[in-house]
C-alpha cells in the first residue's frame, strides 16, 4: 500500500477561538500550528488565513505572508491554500491565493447548504472558471466533494477538459448539508472515483477519526485539523493540530501503514519535486 499522506487543515474559516483557543489567527499562530502538524507527520497544510482578529480573508498579501513564514521554517511542506474561503465571498476574491502559484489548491465541486441560512455557492460555471485558472497556473486541484453529486460534476468537467488527470479528491463527510460520515457513504464515494484517482477523507467532528481509520485501511489518505474538528476525544479539546495528526500517525502505525514525507506525497500526487 502507498504511504499515508496526512493533511492538516489548521485553521478553516468558520471555527473560532471560542471553539478552541488554539485556533490560529495571526501569522505567528499559523506558523506554530503548521509546524506542530508538520513535525507530527503532516505533509500537506490546507490553509485558510485570517486577519489578526479572526476575520476570514482571501487576501493574496495575507496568504503570501503566512505561506512565506511557514516555508521559511518548514521549506519542504506542501501548502494547499483554500479557494473556498468563507461563505459569501466572490469568485475572484476566493481565487486570489492561486496568483501565488502554489503547488495545490482546493477546488470545490458543488453548492451546498452550510447551516442556518448559509449557502456555499459553487455553480457549474464557477467550477469551470476555477478549473481553468488552476490549469493555467499549473496548480493541482484537490477536488472538495461534500456529496456524491459533486464527484459526478468533477467527472463531467474532467471530460470537458476543465480538470486534468490523475484527479485527487477530498471527501468532506459529515457537514450539515452534505453527505453523512457513515461507513456506508464512505464506501459509496470511494467506489465512485476513477481507478487512477487518489483521495483523502476529511471527517467532520466526531467522524474525523473513524473515517481516518477507514481511509488508512483502504489505502486512501487522511485530513484532520481544527477546520474539521477541534476535539482530540469526546469532551476533550485538542491542544494543537499536531495532537490531531499524532493520533492519526498512531492509528496508522497500529494498522501497519507508513507515513509519507512531503517528497513522498509529491510523488504519490504527481507533483513536481522541490
Ligand atoms: N469555508 C468553507 C465555506 C475549501 O477550503 O475549499 C469552504 C471550505 C472549502 O473550507
Ligand atoms: Zn478549507
Explained architecture:
It is a single chain. The chain has 274 residues and is α/β, with parallel strands linked by helices. It is built from nine helices and 14 strands. The chain has helices at residues 27-40, 60-73, 91-95, 124-136, 148-159, 183-190, 208-218, 241-254, 262-269, and strands spanning 6-9, 44-47, 49-50, 56-57, 78-81, 104-108, 112-113, 119-120, 140-145, 168-173, 198-203, 221-224, 231-233, 236-237. An eight-stranded parallel beta sheet has the order 5-2-1-12-11-10-9-6, sandwiched between helices. A two-stranded antiparallel ribbon has the order 3-4. Strands 7-8 form a two-stranded antiparallel ribbon. Strand 13 (231-233) and strand 14 (236-237) form a beta hairpin. It is globular and about 45 Å long. The mean pLDDT is 98.
Quick overview of this protein structure:
By secondary structure, the chain is α/β, with parallel strands linked by helices. The chain has 9 helices and 14 strands. Helix 1 packs parallel to helix 8 and helix 7 packs across helix 8.
Averaged pLDDT:
98
Give the SSE order as H and E letters. EHEEEHEHEEEHEHEHEHEEEHH
Strand content: 15-25%
Indicate the low-confidence ranges by residue numbers. none
Percent helix, as a range, is: 25-40%
- What radius of gyration results from the CA coordinates? 17 Å
Q: Give the overall form.
A: globular
SS summary, helix count: 9
Amino acid at each position: 500500500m502507498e504511504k499515508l499522506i496526512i493533511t492538516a487543515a489548521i485553521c478553516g474559516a468558520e471555527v473560532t477561538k471560542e471553539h478552541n483557543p488554539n485556533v490560529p489567527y495571526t501569522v505567528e499562530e499559523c506558523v506554530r500550528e503548521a509546524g506542530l502538524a508538520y513535525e507530527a507527520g503532516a505533509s500537506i497544510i490546507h490553509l485558510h488565513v485570517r486577519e489578526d482578529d479572526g476575520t476570514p480573508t482571501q487576501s493574496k498579501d495575507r496568504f503570501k505572508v503566512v505561506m512565506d513564514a511557514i516555508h521559511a521554517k518548514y521549506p519542504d511542506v506542501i501548502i494547499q491554500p483554500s479557494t473556498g474561503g468563507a461563505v459569501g465571498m466572490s469568485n475572484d476574491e476566493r481565487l486570489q491565493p492561486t496568483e501565488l502559484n502554489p503547488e495545490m489548491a482546493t477546488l470545490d465541486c458543488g453548492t451546498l447548504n452550510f447551516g442556518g441560512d448559509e449557502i456555499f455557492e459553487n455553480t457549474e460555471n464557477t467550477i469551470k472558471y476555477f478549473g481553468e485558472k488552476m490549469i493555467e497556473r499549473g496548480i493541482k486541484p484537490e477536488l472538495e466533494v461534500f456529496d456524491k453529486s459533486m464527484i459526478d460534476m468533477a467527472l463531467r468537467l474532467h471530460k470537458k477538459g476543465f480538470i486534468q488527470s490523475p484527479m485527487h479528491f477530498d471527501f468532506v463527510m459529515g457537514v450539515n448539508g452534505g453527505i453523512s460520515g457513515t461507513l456506508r457513504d464512505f464506501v459509496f464515494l470511494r467506489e465512485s472515483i476513477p481507478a487512477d484517482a487518489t483521495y483523502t477523507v476529511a471527517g467532520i467532528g466526531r467522524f474525523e477519526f473513524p473515517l481516518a481509520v477507514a481511509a488508512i485501511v483502504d489505502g486512501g489518505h487522511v485530513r484532520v485539523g481544527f477546520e474539521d474538528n477541534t476535539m482530540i476525544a469526546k469532551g476533550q479539546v485538542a491542544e494543537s493540530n499536531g495532537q490531531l495528526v499524532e493520533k492519526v500517525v498512531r492509528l496508522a502505525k497500529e494498522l501497519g501503514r507508513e507515513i509519507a514525507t512531503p517528497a513522498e506525497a509529491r510523488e504519490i500526487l504527481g507533483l513536481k519535486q522541490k
